[in-house]
Amino acid sequence: MRLPPHVTVVEVGPRDGLQHESIGLSVADTVAFIERLGGAGLPVIEVGAFVSPKWVPSMAHTDAVVAALSRRPGVRYAALVPNLIGIERAAVAGITDIALFGATSETFSRRNINQSIADSFATFRVVMLRAHALGMRVRGYLSTCFGCPYEGDVPPARVVELTRALLDLGVVEVAISDTIGVATPGQVWRVLGALAPVVPIGSIALHLHDTRGAALANVLAGLQAGVTIFDASCGGLGGCPYAPGATGNLATEDLVAMLHGLGIDTGVDLEALLGVSTFIADRIGGRLPSRYFQAWRATAGRGEAW
Amino acid sequence: MRLPPHVTVVEVGPRDGLQHESIGLSVADTVAFIERLGGAGLPVIEVGAFVSPKWVPSMAHTDAVVAALSRRPGVRYAALVPNLIGIERAAVAGITDIALFGATSETFSRRNINQSIADSFATFRVVMLRAHALGMRVRGYLSTCFGCPYEGDVPPARVVELTRALLDLGVVEVAISDTIGVATPGQVWRVLGALAPVVPIGSIALHLHDTRGAALANVLAGLQAGVTIFDASCGGLGGCPYAPGATGNLATEDLVAMLHGLGIDTGVDLEALLGVSTFIADRIGGRLPSRYFQAWRATAGRGEAW
User: Fold this and answer.
1) A257/B214 touch (CB, cutoff 8 Å), yes or no
2) Three-state SS for B103?
3) What is the ipTM metric for this complex?
4) Least crowded by CB within 10 Å, which of A284, B160, B282, B305?
Protein backbone atom coordinates (compact mmCIF):
# COMPACT_ATOMS: atom_id res chain seq x y z
CA MET A 1 0.00 0.00 0.00
CA ARG A 2 1.64 3.26 -1.13
CA LEU A 3 1.39 6.06 1.41
CA PRO A 4 3.12 9.44 1.50
CA PRO A 5 6.32 9.55 3.61
CA HIS A 6 5.45 12.90 5.21
CA VAL A 7 2.23 14.58 6.29
CA THR A 8 1.64 18.19 7.34
CA VAL A 9 -0.64 18.36 10.35
CA VAL A 10 -2.57 21.62 10.59
CA GLU A 11 -3.48 22.26 14.23
CA VAL A 12 -6.87 23.96 14.45
CA GLY A 13 -7.51 23.56 18.20
CA PRO A 14 -7.02 27.19 19.24
CA ARG A 15 -9.53 28.26 16.57
CA ASP A 16 -11.93 25.47 15.57
CA GLY A 17 -11.60 23.86 18.99
CA LEU A 18 -11.92 26.81 21.35
CA GLN A 19 -14.53 28.44 19.12
CA HIS A 20 -16.95 25.70 20.12
CA GLU A 21 -15.96 25.21 23.75
CA SER A 22 -18.34 26.81 26.18
CA ILE A 23 -15.50 27.32 28.66
CA GLY A 24 -13.48 30.19 27.30
CA LEU A 25 -9.73 30.20 27.85
CA SER A 26 -8.03 33.37 29.05
CA VAL A 27 -5.66 35.18 26.70
CA ALA A 28 -2.68 33.96 28.76
CA ASP A 29 -3.84 30.33 28.64
CA THR A 30 -4.60 30.54 24.92
CA VAL A 31 -1.11 31.95 24.30
CA ALA A 32 0.46 29.19 26.43
CA PHE A 33 -1.62 26.62 24.52
CA ILE A 34 -0.37 27.87 21.16
CA GLU A 35 3.25 28.16 22.30
CA ARG A 36 3.17 24.60 23.64
CA LEU A 37 1.68 23.35 20.37
CA GLY A 38 4.58 24.95 18.52
CA GLY A 39 6.96 23.36 21.02
CA ALA A 40 5.44 19.95 20.29
CA GLY A 41 6.39 20.34 16.64
CA LEU A 42 3.11 21.35 15.03
CA PRO A 43 4.18 23.13 11.84
CA VAL A 44 0.95 25.10 11.23
CA ILE A 45 -1.31 26.43 13.99
CA GLU A 46 -4.59 28.23 13.52
CA VAL A 47 -4.50 30.67 16.39
CA GLY A 48 -7.89 32.35 16.12
CA ALA A 49 -10.34 34.22 13.95
CA PHE A 50 -10.59 37.91 13.13
CA VAL A 51 -14.36 37.76 13.07
CA SER A 52 -16.93 40.00 14.71
CA PRO A 53 -16.91 39.48 18.48
CA LYS A 54 -20.68 39.94 18.24
CA TRP A 55 -20.99 36.74 16.18
CA VAL A 56 -18.21 34.65 17.73
CA PRO A 57 -17.53 35.93 21.26
CA SER A 58 -15.05 33.13 21.96
CA MET A 59 -12.71 34.55 19.29
CA ALA A 60 -12.88 38.18 20.50
CA HIS A 61 -9.42 37.92 22.03
CA THR A 62 -7.59 36.84 18.86
CA ASP A 63 -5.84 40.24 18.48
CA ALA A 64 -4.64 40.09 22.10
CA VAL A 65 -3.55 36.46 21.74
CA VAL A 66 -1.51 37.11 18.62
CA ALA A 67 0.07 40.21 20.17
CA ALA A 68 1.21 38.25 23.23
CA LEU A 69 2.48 35.23 21.30
CA SER A 70 6.19 34.35 21.14
CA ARG A 71 6.51 33.04 17.62
CA ARG A 72 8.72 30.06 16.92
CA PRO A 73 10.76 30.17 13.70
CA GLY A 74 9.47 27.72 11.12
CA VAL A 75 5.94 27.58 12.53
CA ARG A 76 3.12 29.14 10.50
CA TYR A 77 0.49 30.94 12.59
CA ALA A 78 -2.80 31.28 10.74
CA ALA A 79 -6.13 32.94 11.40
CA LEU A 80 -9.60 32.97 9.90
CA VAL A 81 -10.55 36.16 8.12
CA PRO A 82 -14.12 36.76 6.92
CA ASN A 83 -13.80 40.18 5.28
CA LEU A 84 -11.73 43.35 4.80
CA ILE A 85 -12.07 44.38 8.44
CA GLY A 86 -10.72 40.96 9.42
CA ILE A 87 -7.74 41.12 7.07
CA GLU A 88 -6.76 44.56 8.37
CA ARG A 89 -6.87 43.22 11.93
CA ALA A 90 -4.73 40.26 10.79
CA ALA A 91 -2.23 42.60 9.12
CA VAL A 92 -1.95 44.76 12.22
CA ALA A 93 -1.38 41.62 14.30
CA GLY A 94 1.38 40.53 11.93
CA ILE A 95 -0.43 37.42 10.71
CA THR A 96 0.65 36.41 7.20
CA ASP A 97 -1.33 33.18 6.90
CA ILE A 98 -5.06 33.64 6.59
CA ALA A 99 -8.01 31.40 5.84
CA LEU A 100 -11.30 32.09 4.10
CA PHE A 101 -14.41 30.17 4.96
CA GLY A 102 -16.77 28.95 2.25
CA ALA A 103 -19.37 26.23 1.90
CA THR A 104 -20.73 23.93 -0.81
CA SER A 105 -24.31 24.28 0.36
CA GLU A 106 -26.39 27.46 0.01
CA THR A 107 -28.33 26.85 3.22
CA PHE A 108 -25.21 26.14 5.26
CA SER A 109 -23.47 29.18 3.77
CA ARG A 110 -26.37 31.45 4.70
CA ARG A 111 -26.69 30.03 8.20
CA ASN A 112 -22.98 29.89 8.91
CA ILE A 113 -21.60 33.06 7.33
CA ASN A 114 -24.85 34.84 6.51
CA GLN A 115 -24.04 35.05 2.79
CA SER A 116 -25.03 33.17 -0.34
CA ILE A 117 -22.20 31.24 -1.97
CA ALA A 118 -22.02 33.83 -4.78
CA ASP A 119 -21.84 36.69 -2.25
CA SER A 120 -19.17 34.84 -0.25
CA PHE A 121 -17.05 34.53 -3.40
CA ALA A 122 -17.51 38.24 -4.08
CA THR A 123 -16.13 38.87 -0.58
CA PHE A 124 -13.29 36.39 -1.15
CA ARG A 125 -12.30 38.25 -4.32
CA VAL A 126 -11.94 41.54 -2.47
CA VAL A 127 -10.10 39.95 0.45
CA MET A 128 -7.76 38.10 -1.94
CA LEU A 129 -6.77 41.36 -3.65
CA ARG A 130 -5.82 42.81 -0.28
CA ALA A 131 -4.13 39.55 0.79
CA HIS A 132 -1.96 39.55 -2.32
CA ALA A 133 -1.05 43.21 -1.78
CA LEU A 134 -0.03 42.26 1.77
CA GLY A 135 1.88 39.16 0.59
CA MET A 136 -0.26 36.81 2.63
CA ARG A 137 -0.66 33.08 2.11
CA VAL A 138 -4.35 32.18 1.84
CA ARG A 139 -6.06 28.89 2.58
CA GLY A 140 -9.72 28.30 1.73
CA TYR A 141 -12.10 26.17 3.73
CA LEU A 142 -14.88 24.44 1.89
CA SER A 143 -17.39 23.12 4.38
CA THR A 144 -20.05 20.44 4.00
CA CYS A 145 -18.14 18.65 1.21
CA PHE A 146 -19.47 15.24 2.29
CA GLY A 147 -22.97 16.21 3.33
CA CYS A 148 -24.91 19.19 4.61
CA PRO A 149 -27.04 19.18 7.75
CA TYR A 150 -29.73 21.11 5.88
CA GLU A 151 -29.47 19.98 2.26
CA GLY A 152 -28.20 16.40 2.66
CA ASP A 153 -26.01 14.96 -0.12
CA VAL A 154 -23.47 17.19 -1.84
CA PRO A 155 -22.44 16.16 -5.38
CA PRO A 156 -18.66 15.74 -5.78
CA ALA A 157 -18.93 17.90 -8.94
CA ARG A 158 -19.99 20.82 -6.74
CA VAL A 159 -16.92 20.30 -4.51
CA VAL A 160 -14.72 20.29 -7.62
CA GLU A 161 -16.33 23.44 -9.04
CA LEU A 162 -15.91 25.45 -5.82
CA THR A 163 -12.40 24.14 -5.11
CA ARG A 164 -11.40 25.16 -8.63
CA ALA A 165 -13.00 28.57 -8.05
CA LEU A 166 -11.06 29.08 -4.81
CA LEU A 167 -7.77 28.09 -6.43
CA ASP A 168 -8.53 30.40 -9.37
CA LEU A 169 -8.84 33.25 -6.86
CA GLY A 170 -5.27 32.56 -5.73
CA VAL A 171 -5.93 30.44 -2.67
CA VAL A 172 -2.95 28.05 -2.31
CA GLU A 173 -4.72 25.31 -0.38
CA VAL A 174 -8.32 24.18 -0.01
CA ALA A 175 -9.44 22.33 3.10
CA ILE A 176 -12.10 19.88 1.95
CA SER A 177 -14.18 19.68 5.10
CA ASP A 178 -16.48 17.07 6.57
CA THR A 179 -18.18 19.65 8.76
CA ILE A 180 -20.69 17.30 10.33
CA GLY A 181 -18.58 14.14 10.38
CA VAL A 182 -20.67 12.04 8.02
CA ALA A 183 -18.03 11.01 5.48
CA THR A 184 -17.08 7.42 4.85
CA PRO A 185 -13.93 6.28 3.02
CA GLY A 186 -15.91 5.55 -0.15
CA GLN A 187 -17.02 9.18 -0.26
CA VAL A 188 -13.48 10.39 0.38
CA TRP A 189 -12.28 8.38 -2.61
CA ARG A 190 -15.14 9.66 -4.77
CA VAL A 191 -14.58 13.32 -3.90
CA LEU A 192 -10.79 13.08 -4.23
CA GLY A 193 -11.19 11.02 -7.39
CA ALA A 194 -13.24 13.86 -8.85
CA LEU A 195 -10.73 16.50 -7.69
CA ALA A 196 -7.52 14.73 -8.71
CA PRO A 197 -7.77 15.21 -12.49
CA VAL A 198 -8.64 18.91 -12.06
CA VAL A 199 -6.48 20.30 -9.24
CA PRO A 200 -3.01 19.49 -7.88
CA ILE A 201 -3.43 17.02 -5.01
CA GLY A 202 -0.80 18.99 -3.07
CA SER A 203 -3.25 21.89 -2.84
CA ILE A 204 -5.86 19.72 -1.08
CA ALA A 205 -6.12 19.40 2.70
CA LEU A 206 -8.64 17.18 4.46
CA HIS A 207 -10.49 18.61 7.45
CA LEU A 208 -12.25 15.60 8.95
CA HIS A 209 -14.47 15.30 11.96
CA ASP A 210 -14.73 12.19 14.12
CA THR A 211 -18.42 12.70 14.94
CA ARG A 212 -19.27 9.12 13.97
CA GLY A 213 -15.88 7.52 14.66
CA ALA A 214 -14.76 7.25 11.03
CA ALA A 215 -12.27 10.13 10.88
CA LEU A 216 -9.12 7.99 10.91
CA ALA A 217 -10.60 5.62 8.35
CA ASN A 218 -11.22 8.68 6.18
CA VAL A 219 -7.64 9.84 6.81
CA LEU A 220 -6.42 6.46 5.58
CA ALA A 221 -8.59 6.79 2.47
CA GLY A 222 -7.20 10.29 1.95
CA LEU A 223 -3.59 9.12 2.32
CA GLN A 224 -4.22 6.40 -0.25
CA ALA A 225 -5.55 9.07 -2.60
CA GLY A 226 -2.36 11.08 -2.14
CA VAL A 227 -3.44 13.78 0.34
CA THR A 228 -0.58 15.00 2.56
CA ILE A 229 -2.24 17.78 4.60
CA PHE A 230 -4.66 16.94 7.43
CA ASP A 231 -6.34 19.19 9.98
CA ALA A 232 -6.82 18.17 13.61
CA SER A 233 -7.56 19.67 17.00
CA CYS A 234 -5.39 19.02 20.05
CA GLY A 235 -7.24 16.68 22.42
CA GLY A 236 -10.19 16.68 20.04
CA LEU A 237 -11.01 20.08 21.52
CA GLY A 238 -14.36 21.31 20.24
CA GLY A 239 -15.53 17.81 19.63
CA CYS A 240 -16.99 16.79 22.96
CA PRO A 241 -19.42 14.06 21.93
CA TYR A 242 -21.85 14.96 24.73
CA ALA A 243 -22.25 18.61 23.75
CA PRO A 244 -25.14 19.20 21.34
CA GLY A 245 -23.85 20.88 18.22
CA ALA A 246 -20.27 19.88 18.94
CA THR A 247 -18.37 19.38 15.76
CA GLY A 248 -16.48 16.24 16.67
CA ASN A 249 -13.06 17.52 15.65
CA LEU A 250 -10.53 14.83 14.86
CA ALA A 251 -7.99 14.80 17.71
CA THR A 252 -4.41 15.66 16.78
CA GLU A 253 -2.96 12.88 18.94
CA ASP A 254 -5.28 10.28 17.38
CA LEU A 255 -4.14 11.43 13.93
CA VAL A 256 -0.43 11.67 14.77
CA ALA A 257 -0.39 8.28 16.52
CA MET A 258 -1.92 6.57 13.49
CA LEU A 259 0.38 8.38 11.05
CA HIS A 260 3.47 7.44 13.07
CA GLY A 261 2.16 3.86 13.31
CA LEU A 262 2.02 3.89 9.51
CA GLY A 263 5.63 5.05 9.37
CA ILE A 264 4.63 8.52 8.18
CA ASP A 265 6.71 11.43 9.46
CA THR A 266 4.90 14.48 10.89
CA GLY A 267 7.62 16.26 12.86
CA VAL A 268 5.28 16.16 15.87
CA ASP A 269 6.51 14.85 19.24
CA LEU A 270 3.55 12.73 20.40
CA GLU A 271 4.54 12.72 24.08
CA ALA A 272 4.92 16.50 24.05
CA LEU A 273 1.56 16.80 22.32
CA LEU A 274 -0.08 14.70 25.05
CA GLY A 275 1.45 17.12 27.53
CA VAL A 276 -0.30 19.98 25.72
CA SER A 277 -3.57 18.08 25.90
CA THR A 278 -3.04 17.58 29.63
CA PHE A 279 -2.48 21.32 30.00
CA ILE A 280 -5.71 22.09 28.17
CA ALA A 281 -7.70 19.33 29.89
CA ASP A 282 -6.72 20.77 33.26
CA ARG A 283 -8.09 24.13 32.16
CA ILE A 284 -11.43 23.01 30.75
CA GLY A 285 -12.50 20.55 33.39
CA GLY A 286 -10.49 17.37 32.92
CA ARG A 287 -11.95 15.58 29.93
CA LEU A 288 -11.11 15.75 26.27
CA PRO A 289 -12.76 13.75 23.47
CA SER A 290 -9.49 12.31 22.08
CA ARG A 291 -9.53 8.52 22.34
CA TYR A 292 -5.75 8.33 22.32
CA PHE A 293 -5.50 10.90 25.11
CA GLN A 294 -8.07 9.04 27.21
CA ALA A 295 -6.23 5.73 26.75
CA TRP A 296 -2.91 7.39 27.56
CA ARG A 297 -4.31 9.00 30.71
CA ALA A 298 -5.95 5.76 31.86
CA THR A 299 -2.66 3.88 31.58
CA ALA A 300 -0.20 6.59 32.64
CA GLY A 301 2.02 5.39 35.42
CA ARG A 302 0.74 1.83 35.30
CA GLY A 303 3.69 0.61 33.23
CA GLU A 304 1.39 -1.14 30.82
CA ALA A 305 0.31 -0.44 27.28
CA TRP A 306 -3.30 -0.16 28.45
CA MET B 1 -10.53 0.24 -4.42
CA ARG B 2 -11.76 -3.39 -4.29
CA LEU B 3 -13.80 -4.19 -1.21
CA PRO B 4 -15.89 -7.27 -0.41
CA PRO B 5 -19.62 -6.93 -1.24
CA HIS B 6 -20.76 -8.55 2.02
CA VAL B 7 -19.44 -8.59 5.58
CA THR B 8 -20.50 -10.79 8.51
CA VAL B 9 -20.76 -8.75 11.68
CA VAL B 10 -20.21 -10.81 14.83
CA GLU B 11 -22.01 -9.12 17.73
CA VAL B 12 -20.04 -9.60 20.95
CA GLY B 13 -21.86 -7.08 23.15
CA PRO B 14 -23.70 -9.55 25.42
CA ARG B 15 -20.39 -11.31 26.14
CA ASP B 16 -17.36 -9.05 25.59
CA GLY B 17 -19.42 -5.95 26.35
CA LEU B 18 -21.34 -6.97 29.46
CA GLN B 19 -18.34 -8.90 30.79
CA HIS B 20 -16.58 -5.58 31.37
CA GLU B 21 -19.51 -3.44 32.43
CA SER B 22 -19.65 -2.83 36.15
CA ILE B 23 -23.44 -2.53 35.97
CA GLY B 24 -24.70 -6.08 35.50
CA LEU B 25 -27.84 -6.62 33.44
CA SER B 26 -30.57 -8.91 34.77
CA VAL B 27 -31.23 -12.19 32.98
CA ALA B 28 -34.45 -10.75 31.55
CA ASP B 29 -32.71 -7.64 30.22
CA THR B 30 -29.85 -9.68 28.79
CA VAL B 31 -32.34 -11.94 27.02
CA ALA B 32 -34.24 -8.91 25.67
CA PHE B 33 -30.90 -7.41 24.54
CA ILE B 34 -29.96 -10.56 22.60
CA GLU B 35 -33.43 -10.98 21.07
CA ARG B 36 -33.42 -7.37 19.90
CA LEU B 37 -29.97 -7.81 18.38
CA GLY B 38 -31.31 -10.77 16.40
CA GLY B 39 -34.29 -8.66 15.39
CA ALA B 40 -31.93 -5.97 14.08
CA GLY B 41 -30.39 -8.50 11.71
CA LEU B 42 -27.17 -9.46 13.48
CA PRO B 43 -26.35 -12.88 12.04
CA VAL B 44 -24.02 -14.06 14.85
CA ILE B 45 -24.41 -13.11 18.51
CA GLU B 46 -22.07 -14.06 21.33
CA VAL B 47 -24.51 -14.48 24.17
CA GLY B 48 -22.22 -15.23 27.10
CA ALA B 49 -19.44 -17.35 28.50
CA PHE B 50 -19.56 -20.71 30.25
CA VAL B 51 -16.71 -19.75 32.53
CA SER B 52 -16.37 -20.09 36.26
CA PRO B 53 -18.66 -17.59 38.03
CA LYS B 54 -15.83 -17.26 40.55
CA TRP B 55 -13.57 -15.73 37.88
CA VAL B 56 -16.13 -13.83 35.79
CA PRO B 57 -19.17 -13.07 37.99
CA SER B 58 -20.82 -10.99 35.24
CA MET B 59 -21.16 -14.14 33.09
CA ALA B 60 -22.62 -16.33 35.84
CA HIS B 61 -26.08 -16.10 34.36
CA THR B 62 -25.19 -17.39 30.88
CA ASP B 63 -26.99 -20.74 31.43
CA ALA B 64 -30.15 -18.91 32.54
CA VAL B 65 -29.91 -16.41 29.66
CA VAL B 66 -29.58 -19.12 27.02
CA ALA B 67 -32.42 -21.13 28.57
CA ALA B 68 -34.77 -18.15 28.43
CA LEU B 69 -33.82 -17.06 24.91
CA SER B 70 -36.24 -17.29 21.98
CA ARG B 71 -33.96 -18.21 19.14
CA ARG B 72 -34.47 -16.70 15.73
CA PRO B 73 -33.96 -19.02 12.73
CA GLY B 74 -30.80 -18.17 10.81
CA VAL B 75 -29.07 -16.48 13.76
CA ARG B 76 -26.05 -18.23 15.30
CA TYR B 77 -25.84 -17.92 19.09
CA ALA B 78 -22.30 -18.46 20.35
CA ALA B 79 -20.64 -18.68 23.74
CA LEU B 80 -17.13 -18.73 25.15
CA VAL B 81 -16.01 -22.07 26.54
CA PRO B 82 -12.73 -22.38 28.47
CA ASN B 83 -12.70 -26.10 29.26
CA LEU B 84 -14.65 -29.38 29.43
CA ILE B 85 -16.95 -28.15 32.19
CA GLY B 86 -17.79 -25.18 29.99
CA ILE B 87 -18.54 -27.25 26.91
CA GLU B 88 -20.86 -29.54 28.87
CA ARG B 89 -22.75 -26.48 30.14
CA ALA B 90 -22.92 -25.21 26.54
CA ALA B 91 -24.24 -28.58 25.34
CA VAL B 92 -26.90 -28.69 28.04
CA ALA B 93 -27.94 -25.15 27.07
CA GLY B 94 -28.23 -26.23 23.44
CA ILE B 95 -25.42 -23.96 22.22
CA THR B 96 -23.76 -25.30 19.08
CA ASP B 97 -21.39 -22.42 18.38
CA ILE B 98 -18.52 -22.11 20.84
CA ALA B 99 -15.38 -20.05 21.07
CA LEU B 100 -11.98 -20.82 22.59
CA PHE B 101 -9.82 -18.09 23.99
CA GLY B 102 -6.07 -18.05 23.34
CA ALA B 103 -3.32 -15.45 23.30
CA THR B 104 -0.09 -14.78 21.44
CA SER B 105 1.75 -13.60 24.54
CA GLU B 106 2.79 -15.89 27.42
CA THR B 107 2.32 -13.20 30.05
CA PHE B 108 -1.13 -12.21 28.79
CA SER B 109 -2.15 -15.88 28.55
CA ARG B 110 -1.10 -16.54 32.15
CA ARG B 111 -2.76 -13.41 33.48
CA ASN B 112 -5.93 -13.75 31.42
CA ILE B 113 -6.66 -17.48 31.42
CA ASN B 114 -4.13 -18.62 34.02
CA GLN B 115 -2.40 -21.01 31.61
CA SER B 116 0.74 -20.98 29.50
CA ILE B 117 0.11 -20.96 25.75
CA ALA B 118 1.19 -24.63 25.54
CA ASP B 119 -1.18 -25.58 28.36
CA SER B 120 -4.02 -23.61 26.74
CA PHE B 121 -3.52 -25.56 23.51
CA ALA B 122 -3.57 -28.82 25.48
CA THR B 123 -6.96 -27.72 26.85
CA PHE B 124 -8.15 -26.68 23.37
CA ARG B 125 -7.29 -30.15 22.05
CA VAL B 126 -9.47 -31.86 24.64
CA VAL B 127 -12.32 -29.39 24.18
CA MET B 128 -12.11 -29.75 20.36
CA LEU B 129 -12.50 -33.54 20.61
CA ARG B 130 -15.67 -33.08 22.62
CA ALA B 131 -16.87 -30.27 20.35
CA HIS B 132 -16.48 -32.46 17.29
CA ALA B 133 -18.32 -35.31 19.01
CA LEU B 134 -21.13 -32.84 19.76
CA GLY B 135 -21.09 -31.46 16.21
CA MET B 136 -20.27 -27.95 17.38
CA ARG B 137 -18.81 -25.12 15.30
CA VAL B 138 -15.72 -23.70 17.00
CA ARG B 139 -14.17 -20.26 16.69
CA GLY B 140 -10.80 -19.42 18.22
CA TYR B 141 -9.87 -16.06 19.65
CA LEU B 142 -6.25 -15.05 19.48
CA SER B 143 -5.67 -12.04 21.69
CA THR B 144 -2.85 -9.49 21.71
CA CYS B 145 -2.09 -10.02 17.99
CA PHE B 146 -1.03 -6.38 17.56
CA GLY B 147 0.68 -5.79 20.87
CA CYS B 148 0.63 -7.06 24.44
CA PRO B 149 0.22 -4.83 27.49
CA TYR B 150 2.97 -6.81 29.23
CA GLU B 151 5.33 -7.94 26.46
CA GLY B 152 4.93 -5.13 23.92
CA ASP B 153 5.40 -5.99 20.24
CA VAL B 154 4.11 -9.30 18.92
CA PRO B 155 5.83 -10.63 15.77
CA PRO B 156 3.38 -11.38 12.92
CA ALA B 157 5.10 -14.77 12.56
CA ARG B 158 3.83 -15.70 16.03
CA VAL B 159 0.27 -14.75 15.02
CA VAL B 160 0.62 -16.94 11.92
CA GLU B 161 2.01 -19.89 13.89
CA LEU B 162 -0.79 -19.84 16.47
CA THR B 163 -3.54 -19.20 13.92
CA ARG B 164 -2.26 -22.17 11.92
CA ALA B 165 -2.21 -24.24 15.14
CA LEU B 166 -5.82 -23.32 15.96
CA LEU B 167 -7.00 -24.16 12.42
CA ASP B 168 -5.09 -27.44 12.57
CA LEU B 169 -7.09 -28.30 15.71
CA GLY B 170 -10.30 -27.95 13.68
CA VAL B 171 -11.28 -24.42 14.59
CA VAL B 172 -13.18 -22.97 11.59
CA GLU B 173 -12.49 -19.30 12.25
CA VAL B 174 -9.81 -17.36 14.11
CA ALA B 175 -10.55 -13.91 15.51
CA ILE B 176 -7.30 -11.97 15.23
CA SER B 177 -7.73 -9.61 18.16
CA ASP B 178 -6.38 -6.17 18.99
CA THR B 179 -7.10 -6.68 22.66
CA ILE B 180 -5.72 -3.36 23.83
CA GLY B 181 -6.60 -1.28 20.78
CA VAL B 182 -3.08 -0.38 19.67
CA ALA B 183 -3.20 -1.55 16.04
CA THR B 184 -2.67 0.78 13.14
CA PRO B 185 -3.59 -0.02 9.52
CA GLY B 186 0.05 -0.72 8.66
CA GLN B 187 0.13 -3.46 11.28
CA VAL B 188 -3.18 -4.87 10.06
CA TRP B 189 -1.71 -5.15 6.55
CA ARG B 190 1.49 -6.72 7.91
CA VAL B 191 -0.29 -9.33 10.03
CA LEU B 192 -2.82 -10.18 7.31
CA GLY B 193 -0.06 -10.16 4.71
CA ALA B 194 1.75 -12.78 6.77
CA LEU B 195 -1.43 -14.84 7.26
CA ALA B 196 -2.77 -14.69 3.69
CA PRO B 197 -0.29 -17.10 2.07
CA VAL B 198 -0.74 -19.64 4.89
CA VAL B 199 -4.43 -19.71 5.81
CA PRO B 200 -7.68 -19.11 3.89
CA ILE B 201 -8.65 -15.45 4.36
CA GLY B 202 -12.26 -16.58 4.84
CA SER B 203 -11.24 -18.22 8.11
CA ILE B 204 -9.95 -14.92 9.53
CA ALA B 205 -12.08 -12.53 11.58
CA LEU B 206 -10.85 -9.20 12.92
CA HIS B 207 -11.70 -8.31 16.49
CA LEU B 208 -10.69 -4.66 16.78
CA HIS B 209 -10.91 -2.25 19.66
CA ASP B 210 -11.38 1.48 19.30
CA THR B 211 -9.30 2.36 22.36
CA ARG B 212 -7.25 4.90 20.42
CA GLY B 213 -9.82 5.81 17.76
CA ALA B 214 -8.29 3.79 14.92
CA ALA B 215 -10.68 0.82 14.84
CA LEU B 216 -12.53 1.84 11.69
CA ALA B 217 -9.26 2.68 9.93
CA ASN B 218 -8.14 -0.84 10.82
CA VAL B 219 -11.43 -2.24 9.53
CA LEU B 220 -10.79 -0.46 6.23
CA ALA B 221 -7.29 -1.94 6.10
CA GLY B 222 -8.77 -5.37 6.85
CA LEU B 223 -11.41 -5.03 4.12
CA GLN B 224 -8.69 -4.10 1.64
CA ALA B 225 -6.81 -7.25 2.66
CA GLY B 226 -9.93 -9.34 1.99
CA VAL B 227 -11.30 -9.92 5.51
CA THR B 228 -15.09 -10.34 5.56
CA ILE B 229 -15.79 -11.08 9.26
CA PHE B 230 -15.63 -8.30 11.86
CA ASP B 231 -16.52 -8.33 15.55
CA ALA B 232 -18.23 -5.42 17.27
CA SER B 233 -20.18 -4.60 20.40
CA CYS B 234 -23.59 -2.87 20.32
CA GLY B 235 -23.21 0.73 21.50
CA GLY B 236 -19.50 0.09 22.07
CA LEU B 237 -20.60 -1.66 25.27
CA GLY B 238 -17.59 -2.59 27.37
CA GLY B 239 -15.55 0.17 25.87
CA CYS B 240 -16.36 3.16 28.03
CA PRO B 241 -13.33 5.39 27.55
CA TYR B 242 -13.55 6.73 31.09
CA ALA B 243 -13.44 3.35 32.83
CA PRO B 244 -9.91 2.23 33.70
CA GLY B 245 -9.24 -1.13 32.10
CA ALA B 246 -12.12 -0.77 29.67
CA THR B 247 -11.35 -2.53 26.45
CA GLY B 248 -12.64 0.03 24.01
CA ASN B 249 -14.79 -2.33 21.98
CA LEU B 250 -15.55 -1.19 18.47
CA ALA B 251 -19.23 -0.18 18.39
CA THR B 252 -21.46 -2.20 16.08
CA GLU B 253 -23.28 0.89 14.80
CA ASP B 254 -20.00 2.66 14.00
CA LEU B 255 -18.90 -0.42 12.03
CA VAL B 256 -22.23 -0.98 10.26
CA ALA B 257 -22.61 2.69 9.34
CA MET B 258 -19.17 2.75 7.72
CA LEU B 259 -19.72 -0.55 5.92
CA HIS B 260 -23.07 0.61 4.54
CA GLY B 261 -21.44 3.91 3.54
CA LEU B 262 -18.93 1.85 1.59
CA GLY B 263 -21.79 0.01 -0.15
CA ILE B 264 -21.06 -3.21 1.75
CA ASP B 265 -24.05 -5.33 2.72
CA THR B 266 -24.32 -6.60 6.32
CA GLY B 267 -27.98 -7.57 6.65
CA VAL B 268 -28.15 -5.31 9.70
CA ASP B 269 -30.90 -2.69 10.02
CA LEU B 270 -28.97 0.33 11.37
CA GLU B 271 -32.05 2.12 12.73
CA ALA B 272 -33.18 -1.02 14.56
CA LEU B 273 -29.65 -1.43 15.92
CA LEU B 274 -29.70 2.13 17.28
CA GLY B 275 -32.96 1.17 18.98
CA VAL B 276 -31.16 -1.72 20.69
CA SER B 277 -28.42 0.67 21.83
CA THR B 278 -31.08 2.99 23.23
CA PHE B 279 -32.58 0.06 25.13
CA ILE B 280 -29.20 -0.83 26.60
CA ALA B 281 -28.19 2.79 27.30
CA ASP B 282 -31.39 3.25 29.30
CA ARG B 283 -30.43 0.26 31.42
CA ILE B 284 -26.83 1.15 32.16
CA GLY B 285 -27.19 4.84 32.93
CA GLY B 286 -27.66 6.66 29.64
CA ARG B 287 -24.27 6.80 27.96
CA LEU B 288 -22.58 4.46 25.54
CA PRO B 289 -19.14 4.92 23.97
CA SER B 290 -20.35 4.57 20.35
CA ARG B 291 -19.64 7.78 18.44
CA TYR B 292 -22.35 7.05 15.91
CA PHE B 293 -24.89 6.46 18.68
CA GLN B 294 -23.90 9.69 20.43
CA ALA B 295 -24.23 11.68 17.20
CA TRP B 296 -27.57 10.03 16.43
CA ARG B 297 -28.91 10.79 19.91
CA ALA B 298 -27.68 14.39 19.79
CA THR B 299 -29.51 15.01 16.52
CA ALA B 300 -32.62 12.90 17.02
CA GLY B 301 -35.76 14.91 16.49
CA ARG B 302 -33.92 17.98 15.24
CA GLY B 303 -34.52 17.14 11.62
CA GLU B 304 -30.87 17.71 10.79
CA ALA B 305 -28.03 15.40 10.00
CA TRP B 306 -26.18 16.63 13.08
Assistant:
1) yes
2) strand
3) 0.92
4) B282
